[in-house]
Amino acid sequence: MKLLKRRRNAVSLDSRLEGLAEAADLADGRLDADAVAGARSVVSRAGVRRSLSIDHTAVALAGATGSGKSSLFNLLSGTGLATVGVTRPTTSTAQAALWRGAGSGPLLDWLDIPRRHEVSPAGASSGPEAPAGRGVAVASGPGARTGEAVGGPEGRGAVVVPGLDGWAEGDAAGLILLDLPDHDSIESAHRLEVDRLVELVDLLVWVLDPQKYADAAVHERYLRPLARHRDVMVVVLNQVDRLTPAAAERCLKDLRRLLDEDGLAGVPLVGVSARTGAGLPELGSLLASRVADRRSWAARLAADVGTAADALVRASAGAGARTGGSAGSSPGAAAPPGAGVRSGSDAVATVAAPEVSVDGLAGPLTDALSEAAGVPTVVEAVAKAHRHRSVAATGWPLTRWIRRFRPDPLRRLRLSTPGARSSGGPVGRTSIPVTTVVQRSRMDTAIREAAGAASTGLPAPWAAAVRQAARSHGDELEDGLDRAVAATSLGPVRRPVWWRVAGLAQWAVFAAMLAGALWLIGLLGMDYLRLPQPYLPTVGELPWPTLLLTGGILLGLLIALLSRVAAWLGGRRRARGAARALRASIGQVARELVLDPVAGELSRYRRFTEAVTVARNGDGG
Predict the structure, then answer these.
(1) Whole-angstrom distance between the N-terminal and C-terminal Cα of the chain?
(2) pLDDT tens digits, residue range 490-515?
(3) Comparing C-alpha atoms, which of 117, 120, 118, 102 is closest to residue 169?
């Protein structure tokens, strides 16, 4: 189907419907369920209406009891089909008068109009000599077919009524004129029928009378909520013959003022008299031009899209629904289309999504999560473990074995070694102390602050959605932090080279010390056995055995001391590296479980504002 555009650069109806459907999907679970359901209903209804006849225009005459709409229906159709009454509702179900209604059957079935009347064009004969198919074939019942004469295909037994005089041949072709029940009827079923058809018809003609034209029931319940439908609305002030010309002029001016206040500036306003026929040519010409234009159906759908988009925007802004019930309506009566939504210039404007980078929120959040995950404890254990292993590798051989009886700080926390961590096996739980109440409180505060910063400037429902998204993985957070710590590589796999050098040096000086000790022991043994003393080399005054023994001891202690200093410095360096690695792992958890959901909600809101803007502003609304 060819896309309908209101003006050269306007958004197409298809694009607006797509925008509304997308906005409804994005708003699902975030905004008021009624607003979302209303938007989806409009999309579904538009799909059905566009599949039906666009050569026919459904025009509804709506009004209050005694407004004279049934009299207008009879006068426009040139029939006496509608029962006329003044003091009580006389129209219980809607009925249709059709001009060239061939092909309109599916549309009338969708509108659920069982009573259908085919009106002959002006000048057609209506007597017994009238050709078959001319005049009015009155067909009633759910199985009635438009254009089929009652009593047989040739029209025998049909009630034939002349058409509307004054309309040229073909001027009203495609018109489906509906006479609706009274919107203020004492029967709730009548009001529900009006509300149902007001949602569906292509063009609305509101028939008011001088006594009740300012009634809040019609203005607050129908006219004001339907402000976006001003292009598919006509207002008729009937019974002007009961007023003097001056009084009728004042009445029309006051009604125009009320319509302007309702957001219906520019809506055609016609004063008519069903008794004298005054104003009927102007009304008939107006309806004929709308029918001939064949655009009312699309304009109606565009207005529905705008109204539904306005409802989403109002729900997004957190504005309460503005309901307006008709006078005398039952408490359970359904609200009419658009009830509770002020459209047009009175609608709430969309709020642009704030330009917030979640990267800027990661710092404080990562700090709090790192503390809750026990990162300071792990970093301290990394430094201690490095010193512990360094002493075990470079300490004095006579004392280093004592280190074997001390537990490794990292293994005590059940943190695997770097080599085991690279094997790709499953990561188990650590023995890091559980999160304290203070740490959990800081973590919760950091999450709230990050969500609050991200949602600054957002409407209340979307800000609540952002806060909910930030906490959506709260149950997984502690386990995720523990796994991140357990899976983080806390240092290089290879041992430092200087450990080997220092270790070899220790064994070398230990060997020298042992050699000196054995040498001295041998000398003592020979002296004890009164054996001749061998030649004893010296360094200055100091014998070599004594030099080897004392030098080995002192040099071993010196190497151990220097190794401890180097181990302390290396432990600090490895602790800093482990802190960076752990912070990166914790930051990844913070992004996956907190910031990514927040970013997803912000992106969702941006796409919602773009989609709803397309849906709203296709007609400049």
Answers:
(1) 24
(2) 766 677 888 888 888 888 888 988 99
(3) 120
